[in-house]
Amino acid sequence: MKKRLTGISRYWPIWLAATVVATGVILPVAYLVLRAASADLATLTSVVFRARNLQLLVNTVSLAAGVLAVATLIALPLAWLTTRSDVPGRRLVTLLGVLPLAIPGYVMAYVLLAVSGRYGALSLLLGVDIPRPGGYVGALLALSLYTFPYLFLNLRAAFLGLDVSIEESARALGLTRPQVFRRIVLPQLKPAWLAGGLLIVLHVLGDFGVVSLMRFETFSYAIFLQYTGAFDRLYAAWLALMLLAMTAALLSAEAKTLRRTFLARRGPGSAVPAPRTRLGPWRFPVLAGLVVVALWSVVLPVVTLSFWALRGIGTPGVNVLAALAGSVSASAPAAILTVTLALPIAYAGARLKIRPIQWLERTAWMGYAIPPLALALAVIFMTLALAPGLYQTLTLLVFVYAVHFLAEALGPLRTAFFQINPSVEESARTLGRSRRAAFVTSVLPSIRPGLVTAAAFIFLSVMKELPLTYLLSPIGFQSLAVNVWSMTSEAQYALAAPHALLIVAVSSLFVGLLLHRESNRTSELPV
Prior knowledge:
Structural class: mainly alpha
Shape: globular
Radius of gyration: 24 Å
Number of helices: 25
CATH topology of the largest domain: MetI-like fold
Number of domains: 2
CATH superfamily of the largest domain: MetI-like
């Protein structure tokens, strides 16, 4: 017992950070369960077994499956073209595969709505009146164009890491190129596809901005309607629990699938890069397809946003600078707090083998996996029950941001710790410095790039966050994301355009960081 207490006091910053994060995740969910179970049996039965719940399940699952399918159809060819073909301008194609990340889903939905219809950009510019997308098709298109880069980055990294000697052996045994791709390459891409696909499906399950603008009812949209419109908080709580159950089932299925997958080579493998496949007569159809993807995912959003921004010059409306200041006032402290909490947890994950801390660390990933709208609703129930004074305060909003986005900071920080030789810290200890002094003087300066990357990721993620901001922000608080969504809901495209352009500009920094990290990892390989 004394040894255990000594260990706790020795690593108290790690225990404190992990406990704060675990409390921030587990306690709101516990209060959500209590709120959902507070009604009598007859009421609970009528709420849980409503016919509408089955329709919401079908809508949510079909949208997630559709977005994943469309994203795969875009990302897989792009990843193969940039790593295995002689397509012209491979760096430009790689940029095309990442740039849509700078355009959040609700901004993409704004673009699709603002460019179509009788009073859309195409009608006003060219007199072309195309039907306005909505419902399932509109949500599918907006979410697919935004999320396919998650899959592209994972698949491209997998292609670059494949052992070419296995494919060469298969060719020597008489298999054709299509057979090698289907029987050898595709199975090895499975972990990367699962990783990218998991991100996409989690994003679709938690999306609120796109489905609300497209008026397509999924669990997230129904939660919002019940909480804000019908004021049926019991039903909203059960919908949130159903959404959490879907997320848990998805994570469990993905983990079981990966446990049954073994793709590691048993020999040394080959470090020779894969030969480039000549496109030949397929070059022009491929280039035409790339142009179509570029037009839909990059050119159309930029042109549409610019058109409406210019058209709205001089129109009285919400102050864009005030919205930017509001976004920064939440994003900056959230980035600082998140990195502060993530630093000791990442250190423990990389250097220490303390099982209780490892379990607490996993709750950080739970916070990221919980759909934002469900998390916001859980926090509201908890806050109103335990600390009503914190409800709709910037302090609470920043803390929830930190709990939700902590997992994004753990990746860069753990990588930075793994890249530093532990002997550096040990040498400082042998010179008489305390553990804390050795960390500050020898380790902290070395992980500065990881710290900067983690802080930038969190800052930009918070800048784009919509559901948490909308439900938890203080009264009168303005943010770019909320303004884009609210103005688009009211078809005020000219007023929304400057806010959306600012989000795209700031998000472009995120894309630049991703490209920088990705190019560093693959700089020794041909692009």
